[in-house]
């Protein structure tokens, strides 16, 4: 069976290693577009788009599991994606300072084996509380370059973790892939857990 991660994220790759020793990375390259403004619906829609793009490249006769994922940060109902530039990153971090925000990761699993096809999508939400952070701290962090490819302009697993007071929910969800939830969902497909 081909196990395919439809993402080039090094963080998702590391998290998926907790579930599978061998898998392929085929990042989706299509233009992402969500029709919803709701963060949970956005990540579900985009994770499905990514997984289905890769599915369209796989021969029908192949057994596969394709994993698509998308993560957004939401503050007071407003979705904060990856920063456009350093100024945008600084603005985002200033908004998060001293507040609670939500991190949503949507996952779509497309499974095909022996002519049986399954499609499962779910979204995980984690509440993250930031300590108050100063303008100087924000500026220094942005200059490090770490925030520039991350939703919400920070990486919890990197130096951005120093700003976090607490989280409620899955830590791995904030990193970008709720692997424990994926494991539980795959167990319900049948004997899939035995393949890990």
Topology at a glance:
Blueprint (H helix, E strand, L loop, with lengths): L1 E4 L4 H7 L7 E2 L13 H17 L8 E12 L2 E3 L5 H11 L3 E14 L2 E15 L4 H9 L20 E5 L2 H5 L3 H11 L7
Parallel strand pairs: 1-2, 1-3
Antiparallel strand pairs: 3-4, 3-5, 5-6, 6-7
Element order: H for helix, E for strand:
EHEHEEHEEHEHH
Major beta-sheet overview: 7 strands, mixed
> On the 0-100 scale, what is the average pLDDT?
93
Distance between the termini: 12 Å
How many strands in all? 7
Low-confidence stretches: none
Cα radius of gyration in angstroms: 17 Å
Structural class: alpha/beta
- Tell me the overall shape: elongated
Beta-strand content bin? 25-35%
Number of distinct helices: 6
Helical residue percent? Answer: 25-40%
Fold and architecture overview:
This protein is of the alpha/beta class and 196 residues long. Helices cover 31% and strands 28% of the residues. The protein has six helices and seven strands, in the order E-H-E-H-E-E-H-E-E-H-E-H-H. Strands 1, 2, 3, 4, 5, 6 and 7 form a seven-stranded mixed beta sheet that branches. Helix 3 (86-96) packs across helix 4. The longest helix has 17 residues, at 39-55. The model has no long low-confidence stretch (mean pLDDT 93).
Descriptive key words:
196 residues, alpha/beta, 7-stranded mixed sheet, 28% strand
């Amino acid at each position: 069976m081909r196990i395919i991660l439809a993402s080039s994220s090094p963080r998702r790759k590391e998290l998926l290693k907790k579930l599978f020793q061998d898998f392929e990375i085929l990042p989706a390259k299509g233009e992402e577009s969500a029709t919803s403004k709701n963060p949970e619906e956005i990540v579900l829609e985009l994770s499905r788009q990514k997984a289905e793009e890769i599915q369209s490249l796989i021969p029908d006769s192949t057994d596969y599991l394709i994993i698509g994922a998308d993560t957004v940060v939401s503050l007071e109902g407003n979705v904060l994606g990856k920063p456009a530039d350093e100024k945008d990153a600084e603005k985002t971090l200033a908004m998060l300072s001293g507040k609670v925000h939500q991190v949503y990761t949507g996952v779509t699993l497309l499974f095909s084996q022996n002519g049986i096809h399954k499609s499962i999508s779910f979204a995980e939400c984690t509440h993250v509380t930031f300590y108050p952070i100063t303008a100087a701290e924000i500026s220094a962090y942005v200059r490090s370059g770490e925030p520039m490819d991350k939703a919400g302009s920070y990486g919890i697993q990197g130096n951005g973790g120093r700003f976090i007071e607490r989280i409620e929910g899955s830590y791995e969800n904030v990193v970008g892939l709720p692997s424990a939830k994926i494991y539980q969902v795959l167990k319900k497909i049948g004997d899939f857990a035995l393949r890990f």
